[in-house]
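With this grant's support, we have settled on a layout for protein records. One resulting record is reproduced below.
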Amino acid sequence: AEIAPKHVRGSFVFANQLLQNCGLSLFFIIGNFISWRILSIVGMVPCVLHVIGLFFIPESPRWLAKCGRDKECRAALQQLRGHDADISIEANAIRDTMEFSKQSGETHIMELFQKRYVYPLIIGVGLMLLQQLSGSSGVIYYASSLYERGGFPSAIGTSVMATIMIPKAMIGTIIVDKIGRRTLLMASCAGMGLFSLLLSVSYSFQSFGVLPQLTPIFTCISILGYVISYALGMGGLPWIIMSEIFP
């Protein structure tokens, strides 16, 4: 959120969701062929690459400007935007923002509860709470068990889910700056609620022996629909909104 240009900030932050889905998709597919112990060892590889890569990325220009290190701020910004890019306007805007923050004096945690901050605080924290309480982690982590519970082959179900993870996240990355945050978030939440209801209804029908032949189909549709709905909005939008609504 700090290093992305303003006009593509939404897509950049949403790309985090895209890359998460790439990783989940890869491991869902690999997990069908190897044990979880080997899968854990394989997961160490990107972690090591991540640690090594941290030594080659520039510091956040906003943080450097906040510390009064203007030359380093400009150098980091130039590295991020390219050596031929004109960074003067953006660098001056960052510096002015940091200067205004300094003039406002030291901030304390109790200031968050001032009347002017309460509304955005409720929105930001509320969205993050709803994201975690939506059950997305449970659906993704226990997808195999959910498929088996509904009578659908878990290997096929997780493979199909892994296949659609990347395209659905790519769609969200493309449309996030075109449709609008609020509209996309409402559509995402509505889809999650609808497919959660469908999943619970299909399990209830199974328990009472009603339309047992349709339970596997409903289970598959519910899980895939839920995962798609989550990725299109609730997965990445709370992070974007958090970075945009706070001073």
Observations:
- The chain is about 75% helix and 0% strand.
- The chain has a mean pLDDT of 84.
- Residues 18 and 169 are 5 Å apart (CA to CA).
- Residues 181-208 form the longest helix (28 residues).
